[in-house]
């Protein structure tokens, strides 16, 4: 007999006959109440299974989805952070200092990692496309502006523009090849490529402070000022001080590599370009050039020449590996050398709000000293702007405009040998010849006044245009280069930098073309110019020697 138990409590059995009536031999007895109970209990269990099981599957589904989304977000954040950590920027993210001029690496610890990553991605890759989508200049408008620019008769360029030809002379016959551009990379901090009026930059090393930012801003203003006129070009640029392309290393068919920077020397072939401070220098509170010059000139008029202090004045930083400045610090004796030499502490000046370092307050003396620093110094243009007699200590370096200076016409030459005594002679000469000293100071100031930002842009335009003519290839944007626009620079700039950048921005397209660049001068022109300057310097030195000899006897 087959028996099936449904419940231990009731101990009832169900026969095979009840379940299988065709089986005659099966017997079973069962109580109906327990069977109803059992059926009801089974129904509840089935109902629970059918009602609760779908909910467990649904909860599990949402949990899996949530975990998947969270994982994707985590992976995305990691990928973005990783991508940002490899993206080089114009303010120095993920860039090492130039190995040929080391400085303290930049840190960006004032921002969280995610904030920094967002800023890098947005400023580097999104700012320019967004700006273009919001409405850039339309081609038809550019063509119209180009026609307006070309319809006016431009003035003749100043004399110092002729040095563009001297700077580019090494490549005049054989031109500039892509191989030379590639070789110049080992000397460059970044690469500038202009294609169809757009600026692209390939970054190799960081630049000290905000030099790169303000230099690129200047080029963007040039493109805005003369839309459609700046040619496609490929330029290697070093943003540090000392020239590196030595003239004596090339010859007998060996061509130098073309490299732009802020200064050069007679012994170098680096191509000088207007420095960043023409658009402002945020780290030392110097304003854009046009505004800064006007302030300095107003300050120079606070005292008449007669009331100006009859001493030679210098204020600056001597701790820049400059032998001349180190020696100059030993000349700080007003009674012995007729000087007032002041050490500039920029850390303390920053704390004091730069009140004691205002350039417009440093024109109270009849004589202002210029001493080169680690190399050339941007202070030159500010010193000449005072209207005081500039005392320039035997400069080794030249920027793009200083080569036009003529001794005794717009500055007084000071010997680097026995600096203190040479300064004393210049002060004595000026005090004995006040009208002549004042006239030299006025001519120096006028020279700086003539060098407006319009003239700076003219120089940039002609230098880039003449350089582009020498390239024997069509410039192409490198795969690793990033587009740079006003919006991307402002995106990276801090508040002080933004203030200066916006102040120095070109507000309208020029209605006149750049000045007319005269033809390349006779090759003997530059030699004759240098000889003329040296002759006057020798005459001044001879005067000084005779005066010193007479004093001894």
TrEMBL record:
Residues 229-474 form the Glycosyl transferase CAP10 domain. GO terms for molecular function: transferase activity. The keyword Cell membrane does not apply. It comes from the Eukaryota. The keyword Membrane applies. The chain crosses the membrane at residues 60-78. Pfam families: Glyco_transf_90. Keywords: Membrane, Transferase, Transmembrane, Transmembrane helix. Belongs to the glycosyltransferase 90 family. PANTHER family: KDEL LYS-ASP-GLU-LEU CONTAINING - RELATED, PROTEIN O-GLUCOSYLTRANSFERASE 1. This is RING/U-box superfamily protein isoform 1.
């Amino acid at each position: 007999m087959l028996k099936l138990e449904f419940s231990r409590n009731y101990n009832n059995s169900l026969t095979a006959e009840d379940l299988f009536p065709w089986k005659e031999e099966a017997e079973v007895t069962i109580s109906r109440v327990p069977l109803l109970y059992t059926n009801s209990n089974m129904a509840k269990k089935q109902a629970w299974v059918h009602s609760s099981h779908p909910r467990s599957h649904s909860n599990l589904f949402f949990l899996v989805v949530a975990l998947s989304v969270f994982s994707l977000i985590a992976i995305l954040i990691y990928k973005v952070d990783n991508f940002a950590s490899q993206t080089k920027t114009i303010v120095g993210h993920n860039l090492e200092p130039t190995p040929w001029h080391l400085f303290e690496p930049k840190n960006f610890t004032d921002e969280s990692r995610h904030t920094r990553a967002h800023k890098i991605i947005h400023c580097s890759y999104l700012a320019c496309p967004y700006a273009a989508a919001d409405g850039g200049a339309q081609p038809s408008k550019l063509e119209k502006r180009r026609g307006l620019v070309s319809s006016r008769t431009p003035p003749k360029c100043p004399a110092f523009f002729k040095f563009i030809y001297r700077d580019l002379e090494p490549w005049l016959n054989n031109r500039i090849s892509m191989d030379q551009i590639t070789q110049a990379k080992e000397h460059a901090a970044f690469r500038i490529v202009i294609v169809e009026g757009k600026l692209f930059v390939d970054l190799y090393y960081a630049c000290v402070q905000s030099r790169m930012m303000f230099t690129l801003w200047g080029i963007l203003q040039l493109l805005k000022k003369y839309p459609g006129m700046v040619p496609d070009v490929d330029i290697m640029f070093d943003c540090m001080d000392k020239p590196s392309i030595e003239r004596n290393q090339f010859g007998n068919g060996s061509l130098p590599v073309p490299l732009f920077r802020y200064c050069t020397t007679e012994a170098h072939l680096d191509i000088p370009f207007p420095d960043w401070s023409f658009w402002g220098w945020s780290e030392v509170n110097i304003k854009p050039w046009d505004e800064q010059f006007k302030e300095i000139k107003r300050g120079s008029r606070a005292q008449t020449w007669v009331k100006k202090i009859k001493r030679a004045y210098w204020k600056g930083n001597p701790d820049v590996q400059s032998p001349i400045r180190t020696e100059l610090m030993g000349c700080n004796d007003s009674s012995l050398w007729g000087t007032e030499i002041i050490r500039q502490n920029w850390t303390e000046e920053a704390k004091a709000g730069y009140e004691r370092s205002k350039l417009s307050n440093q024109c109270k003396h009849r004589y202002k000293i210029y001493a080169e620093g680690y190399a050339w110094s941007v202070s030159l243009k500010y010193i000449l702007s005072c209207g005081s007699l500039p005392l320039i200590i035997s400069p080794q370096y030249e920027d793009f405009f200083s080569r036009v200076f003529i001794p005794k016409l717009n500055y007084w030459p000071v010997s680097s040998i026995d600096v203190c005594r040479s300064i004393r002679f210049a002060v004595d000469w000026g005090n004995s010849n006040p009208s002549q000293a004042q006239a030299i100071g006025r001519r120096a100031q006028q020279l700086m006044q003539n060098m407006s930002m319009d003239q700076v842009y003219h120089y940039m335009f002609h230098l880039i245009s003449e350089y582009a003519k020498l390239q024997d290839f069509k410039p192409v944007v490198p795969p690793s280069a990033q587009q740079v626009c006003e919006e991307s620079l402002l995106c990276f700039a801090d508040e002080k930098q933004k203030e200066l950048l916006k102040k120095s921005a070109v507000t309208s397209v020029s209605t006149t073309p750049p000045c007319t660049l005269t033809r390349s001068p006779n090759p003997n022109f530059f030699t004759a110019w240098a000889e003329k300057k040296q002759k006057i310097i020798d005459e001044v030195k001879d005067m000084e020697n005779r005066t010193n000899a007479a004093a001894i006897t």
